[in-house]
Structure formats: C-alpha cells, structure tokens
Amino acid sequence: MAYQSYQQRQPSYASCVTSLRTSLSYLQSSVSTLDAGISDFPRLTSLLKTVRHYELIPQPTLAAAEASLRDEIGPFISLLLDRAEKNIDRQARRIETLKARAELNAGRLSHYTSEGASSAQQERQRRQQEREREKKLKAARSRRLDGSAALRAKVVAQRKEALKYSVERLEMEVQQKERELRKRLERH
Predict the structure, then answer these.
(1) Does residue 8 fall inside a structural domain?
(2) What are phi and psi of 62, to 5 degrees?
(3) What pTM was computed for the model?
(4) What residues make up the domain containing 163?
(5) b/e map of 138-172 (b: 16 or more CB within 10 Å)?
(6) Could you report the per-residue pLDDT of 43-72, keeping only the tens digit for each?
(7) 176 Cβ contact partners less than 8 Å away, ≥ 6 residues apart
(8) DSSP string covering 62-121
(9) Is residue 24 part of a domain?
(10) Structural domains counted in the chain
(11) Which DSSP letter does residue 49 get?
(12) In a domain, 32, yes or no
C-alpha cells in the first residue's frame, strides 16, 4: 500500500514541478518586460521631475502684504486722483469759458454784420480815438509823477482798461442774451 501511494503521489509531484517551471517562465518574462520598461527610468525621472514655479503662501501672509502695499501706495493714489479731479474740473471750466467766448464772438460778429460795415468802421475809429486820448493822458501823467506814483498810476490805468473791456464784454453778452430771448420768443 505504501508503494501505491508513492506512485500516486509521483504524478502529482510531476505536475507541481511543471506548474512551478511554467510559473518560473512567466516570472522570467515579467522580469524581462519590467527591465525593458524601467531601463529608461533615469531619463523619465528627469523629464517628469516637478519644478516649483511659484510658492504658495498662507492667506494671512498674503492679506498682510496687501494691506502693507495698500498703506504704502494709498496716499499717492488718492493724491493722484485728487489732482486728476482738479484738472478735469479746470478743463471743464475752461471748456465752458471757451464756449461762452465763442458765443459772445459769434454775437459780436453777427452784430457787426447786421449793422453793416460803415457802423463797424465808425466804432473802430471811435475806439482808436479813445485809445490815442488815453495814451496822451498817460504820457502826460507819467511825466509829472515820480517812480512809485507812476507805477500806481500804471496799475490803475490797467485796471481801468480791464474794467472797460469787461463792461464792453458784458454789454455784448446782454445783447447776445437779448437776441437769444427774441429768437426763443419768435419760435413760440
């Protein structure tokens, strides 16, 4: 009986050995496949190496840096904004002044063209005569006055001239407004 059991076991040992050899050949082919797969591993590690392009910082640190920058730059920005607003206001006033001046000049032009060339020439001659008279008076006064008095007289004369011009301009503006009012009344 013992012999029979040995013979029965022998084929089972043979099948184990063949299974083991088959497994060994599979293992050998797996190792060769792995060798082929990882033979390029050093090159792949250099290719796939991660490079840190930026650094992550915590939110409180970022908020502190922003606040510091805001505190540092804030006054300059507000100063520049104030300057910009002042310049914008100044330009807006200048535009309004130029518009008013253009309307006034248009009124003067229409006034001169409506009255005719002869009245315009008479007006120019009258103004020229007034200027010549004023020049003669200024020359006579300056001869009699000393340095500081002559300077004061010159300032007063300049103010007088400026006021004359202002009065003339205001008269022209009144005439312009009257014409505009008449046109509005004619439309209605």
Answers:
(1) no
(2) -65, -45
(3) 0.32
(4) 13-40+60-136+153-181
(5) eeeeeeeeeeeeeeeeeeebeeeeeeeeeeeeeee
(6) 777 777 776 666 778 889 989 999 998 999
(7) 103, 104, 107
(8) HHHHHHHHHHHHHHHHHHHHHHHHHHHHHHHHHHHHHHHHHHHHHHHHHHHHHH-HHHHH
(9) yes
(10) 1
(11) -
(12) yes
